[in-house]
Every structure is written in structure tokens, then in C-alpha cells.
Amino acid sequence: RNVLKTPLKQGATSPLVLTGRQPDCQPLTTPPKPKESPPADPWTPTSNLKMLISAASPEIRSREQSKQLSNSLTEVLQAKHCLQEHLLGDEYEKSQPSRKEKSLGLLCHKFLARYPDYPSAAQKSYICLDEVTEELHVERRRIYDIVNVLESLHMVSRLARNRYIWHGRHNLPQTLQALRKVGEENKYIQQIQMLKKREYEHEFDPDGERKEETASSLGSSEQSEMPFVELPGVEFRAASVNGRKYKSLRVMSQKFVMLFLVSTPQIVSLEVAAKILIGEDQLEDLDKSKFKTKIRRLYDIANVLSSLKLIKKVHVTEERGRKPAFKWTGPEVLPNIQDTKLEATSTTCSPPISESIPSKVHCSKNLFPSKGKQNFTRHSSLIKLVKSIENDRRKIQSAPASPVKISTNFVLQKIIFQGTHFYMKKLKYIWAFCLFFFCLRTAEETQMKCALSSPEAAPKPEANQPLGVCPASYSSASPVILPHPHSGVSYAIYLHPSQAHTVTTYSPGFMLQPLPCANVTGIKSNNSKVLNKITTEEGDSQIAVAEPTKPLAAEERPKMKSETSSQRCLKRSQALQENNLIKRHRSDEESLGASLTFFPSGYLIPLTHCTHGNKTECTNKDKAGMCSLQHPTYSSPITGVIPMTAPELKTVNIPALHITPLNIMLSPNSVAAAPVLSNSCLNSSNASSAPNPSSSALNFMLQHIGLIPAGVQVPANPVLQHVPVSSQAENGHNSGNTNVQEGKVRTNLLHLGRGGLRRDYSAAIPLQQPSAPKEPQEPQAVTENFFCTPGGPNSGSSLPANSDGAEKTSQGTLYIPQRKLEVSED
DNA sequence: ATCTCCCGCCATATG
DNA sequence: CATATGGCGGGAGAT
């Protein structure tokens, strides 16, 4: 093979090395900036903007201008910031158009900028590769990389040679759904678990031939020829129905995405991905070069996916140091519950934009069965889980040699992580809901004064209570509410019991109010390796810097709501010390390197601005527009989700937060039906006879909210649906229509269950009370004000608001991202 | 040194 | 056959 060298960067002389491949074109070697590149500082935001904008076609430009502006501005700023960081010593100057400028990611951005995220039927756009390559000044080859990945997501499809059609993100939800499904069928989870396990064992005894179960558990592993996943509606008439279609990049991209969709912490390390994608076949196929190649391709794919904001780079830290990984930041893809078609009647509120809506409705049905009888046991995932646990149990019993301890831990973890994960997925919505109303009530009753409260707060106290107050005034709420340092947006964080052991933390400036829970045990494993220690940190770690000095205030959570703020302050400072202690403790722990570390993760409920206007009549087109607007999720005020990012998790410690939503939904039957849960509860809340803090908190909250009469205690395993909705929920006094209010409560519950917090409450009303005169304004106002925060959009924050597609298609669904950072498999 | 990943050769598929 | 696609891996910038 002839040796062609990559031209040196400044290769003024390099051309000679190259074979004359493009005779008439310029010297080929992308000379140091031969042409049109603006002589001026290439990295100023403006120049970059210009470039981006000029790249867009005129019509798109006008339509998308604002979006582009904010979008690219953010990015450019980030890039700039990033750059700035790197060139710290030097007087941050224009760096040569270095490699970064040619990165696939940037190129992809430019590419994407040309087309609307949600093109309407009218603006169906075609992609001519020749044009693109010319306009973007890039080699054709690169465009293929991008297009292939986009194709794998059905965002584009090939029409003919040189010609693609742009679909935008319309198909995304379906695609992801499909991919997830295939991923599940493909048993990726198991494969990942096996990989980790093997790795672990490997480390334990360096040469032992561990092949025991490789064969067994992966019996069918090889559909390695998993074909390209198609979508029913989207036909790929491209004549290229065969051959390479089943080959690499496209399929690889799909598989990669699948990995995210099926794995529990939606974090996938490159290494794992590569191994799995290489073909799980021969484990010891230490084919180094193959692996390297795979990694290279994955980077390519990842770059594109990152541009799409579906994933973002993080790092996973295990015993063996940092490993590059990526975290899913795209829309949440719910597992496809049963396939039975749901009656479309209940979706009258808004025309289903995508298939995902019915499925959400369905989900809500499962969550809140109308007949108390049916419970979670019917959920296929649960059944699977139970089965797998039984399997594990069997394994344990039949495995003579293996140390029981490990196995037990394994099962325990599985139970906890998987089981709780499953329930958390549902329950977090309920908690969000509870929190919501709890705050309303609390605000009302305690009449907290907020410095920022608006004048008209009096008439509608709860409605106008700026969220910023929450942290202080609602400290009695179980969920932790965190104000966002940048935006003033607040978040509630729920910590999963199993992760609440040692919590690493959140960025300073956050205020935490943990529950007093002396006995959080978590899983004390002697086998610390079983649980990989994972920390993730943002690729671009620009975070955490905000309010560097303001220490985190952790507060011993009080049981009484009537606490005064001064008391709180006191406690806060106490908590501070406490926090430090814990921090110290943790570092000790780390230095020992022996003990298990649990990670924080939580459910962030960003209490941000809500959307305005009546979205109910959001037509497709409107929606497209709206969505486009929200696309630059970074700064969108209506972005529903702001996942907690690692950098925020690494500076401080939070004392064991013990909030276990799990307790909410457990009915006696469901417990019986789901041993998983009871186990998990047991474990998390510890077998001590002390009343379960969570349950007391819950009781308190429920009473407070008015969902249950004072004095009544919801048992440890209350069933939410059995709790009567109190008609005296007086928080509706401003509406003057209690009934409506009540109805809303219920409908809201439904909505919460199905997709997360609905911001658009008015849309929810018809669901249950089609005939009731709905007052779009009123509920709107409530939610709006409730979620409103004094601060502006979370500008500058690196918190990517994931949510894209999902949020768009569900009209402002505010969902609570799950941020479990532990490794739930081993 | 390791992580990223750009570049472009060249095998294949397409038309 | 000419082109369009895209697999692939060397090796150079970034860290």
C-alpha cells in the first residue's frame, strides 16, 4: 500500500506527498486557508454567525433566523469559551483554523442549519449533495458521513443519486421508539451487563478463562446481521435497497442509539459500544485494529448525534480511570407498553402528531388504571424483570462455587436498580405532581413572602409565587428543590434511595434540603467493584463555575412546615458544616478506595417558565414553528428539562437524601405482585422499625395537599388511586370553580402519568370533562405563574435541555429526566 | 502518551 | 463504464 500521509497542518509544502487525485481542483490539501475564509478573526461569534446564516438558503433563513441566531450564538459562544479555555496562557487569540474548524460536528451543524427541524409538507426540501458540498466547502466524503447517520434516524432518505430528501425530526419519535424496541429484542442490556461482568472477572483473575456463561446467556446473540431498521411510514425507495444498506455506518449508528435507549443510565461508553457493535461474537477477539476502527467510526457517529443534540459527551470514571462515553440527551423514549391500540377518543384535546402520543396515553392508563384491580403486574417490563430476577435467584441457588455474596449483591442490585428504575419512571411523575400541588398549598398557607413576588400576588398567592421562593419556603417538601444558579430556575431533585448513600453533588449555589435519614443503608457491598464507580463530567466543563463561592446549603429537613426563614437560615448553616463533614468523609472514603460509592442522581424538575399561548390549537405547522423555536434547547425558557449534569454533581456532597417515591404506589397487591419493589423498599428504607421517612413525608404532603384528610396516615404502601381526591382542595379559590379544579387535578394526574408534567393544563381538561367549560386562561395562569421564575432563561448554562423531539411533539410536556449515574449492571 | 477524528485511498454499488 | 457511495485505517492535532 502506498503511503499517503495526511498533509501536515500548515503544509505549505505538503502537496507533493499527495497523489494527484484531483487534477483540476486546487492542490487538494486544504491549504492553510487559501480562500474565502474571512481574513478577520475567524472565531468571532459574528463571523461564525455570518457563515452559518449565509449557508442557509434564503427562505429558510428568514424563517429560521431567530432560531439560528440564538442557536448558533450559543454554540459559538460555547466554542469560543472552550477555545478560550484552551488557550489560556496565550492571549486568547484567533487560533489558526485548526482541526476543530473542520470537525464533523461543526460541519454537521452547518449542514443542519440548512434545513428546518420540522419541515412542513410545503417546504419539503431536497438535498443535493453537490450543492451541499460546494456550499459547505467540504469534501463529499464528509457529507456522506453525516447523511448516513441522519439516514439511520430517518431524518433524511435517499431518493436517487446525489439526491436526498429532508424529513427533519418528524420521524424521530417513531424511529427512536422502533430502535428501542429492536434494541430490547436484541438484548443489548444483557450484552452490556455481560461485558461488564466479564471485564470485572477479568480483572479479578487475569487469565482465568471465563467462558461459562458467555455461551449460555448469549445463546442467540447473533443476529449480527441485524438489518437496517426501517420505519413503516417512511419508505426508502432508494434503489439501494440492498448491499451496503445493511452495512456499517447506518446500521452502526442505529445500534449505537439503541444502546442508549435500552441502557438504564443512558450513558454508553465508547468502549462498550464498540465491543458490542463489533459483534458480540468472539469475546477474546482482541482484534486491536478492528476495535480501533470501530471506535473511530463511533466518534464519527457520535459527532453527528451530538450535533443533533441527541447525545453529549461525558466521561465515565471507573476503577480504571476515565473513559470516554456519551450520554443520551435526546427525547425520552418510553418503552413500548402493550401494543393494543388505544381508543383515540381520549385524545381529543389535541390531534395526535405522532404515534407516540397514543402510547403515552396508554402509559397513563397503566399508571392509573380506572379499575383498581389491574396493576403493574400486567406491565410486560415488570414481568420480564420478575422473570429475570427469578432466573438470577435460580442461578444463585444452583451455583455452588460462586461466592454467594457476590451473587446476592448482584441480584440485589438488579432488583434495586431495575425494579426501582422501572417504578421511578412512573412515579417520578406523581412526585412531580405532588410537589407541584404541595408547593401550591404551602405557598398559600404559609403565605411566604418572596422578595421577588409580584404585586398582584395577593389575589392569587399561589399562582404568583415565584418559584425562586420554593427552596426557602417549601423546605418541608420532600423533594429537594434547587434553584438554578444561573437562571433562577428551580429544580427539584429526587434521589433514588439506592443512590442516596453517598451523594456527590451539585454545584454550589444549589440549596438542598435533604430528609433526615440516619439509616440510609444502600447496599453495603464488600464487593465494591460490582458497582462501578461512575462519575460523569461534561465534555465542556464550563459549568460549576457559577457562584463558586456560595457554598451549598444542605439542610436538615424539618418535619414542620411552619418553620420560619430565619430558622431555616440557621439550619442551613448547620447543614453546611454537616455537609462539609460528609464531604470530608467521602474523600476519606475515596482515598481508601475501598468502599462503594453511590452516585447522586436525581430527578430534576426544572420549574421553569412555562409556555404561553394556547397550544391546544397548535397545528402541525404551528407546532413546527414553535418547535423550531424551542429547538435551541440551551436557552429556551420553555424547555422542559434541564438534566443535571455531572459537573454539577461533583463539588459538593449531599447528605443522604432519602426520598423514595417507591412508597407511593405500593398497594398490597402490587407488592405481592412485585417483590421487586418490596425488596427495594426494604433495602432502601432499611429494616429498622422507625417509620419510613418517606412515608411520613408522603403523608405529610398528601395531607397538606389535601389529598387525604388530616390525621389519616397513608400506609407504607399506599395506593395512590385509592386516595380520594378531596373536594375541598381549596387551592382553587381563585378560580371560583372547585369542580373544575378538581377535575383538573385528576386530569393532570393523568397527564403526569403519561408524559410528565403538562404545562398545558387546559389541553388536559377535555380529557375528563369534555363538557365542562374550560377556562384556558385560568389554569394556564396558575401553571404559568407557578412555574415562573424571576430569573431569565437559563442562559449560559451548559445544561442542555434535552427533550427536543419529545417535548415538541407533546406540546410542552415537562418531563423529569432521570439521571441515574450508577451502573446498574455489573 | 492518549484521545479524537480528519483525510482521502480505493473497493463497491449504481445508473 | 463513469460516478456515486462509503469502508477503512494512517497518522496528525488536541489534551
TrEMBL record:
GO biological-process terms attached to the record: negative regulation of DNA-templated transcription; positive regulation of macromolecule metabolic process; positive regulation of nucleobase-containing compound metabolic process; sprouting angiogenesis
Biased composition (Basic and acidic residues): 202-214, 553-562
One GO MF term attached to the UniProt entry: DNA-binding transcription factor activity, RNA polymerase II-specific
Domain E2F/DP family winged-helix DNA-binding span(s) in chain numbering: 99-168, 244-330
Compartments where located: Nucleus
Main location: nucleus
Recorded GO CC terms: RNA polymerase II transcription regulator complex
PANTHER family: TRANSCRIPTION FACTOR E2F (PTHR12081), TRANSCRIPTION FACTOR E2F8 (PTHR12081:SF40)
Name of the protein in question: Transcription factor E2F8
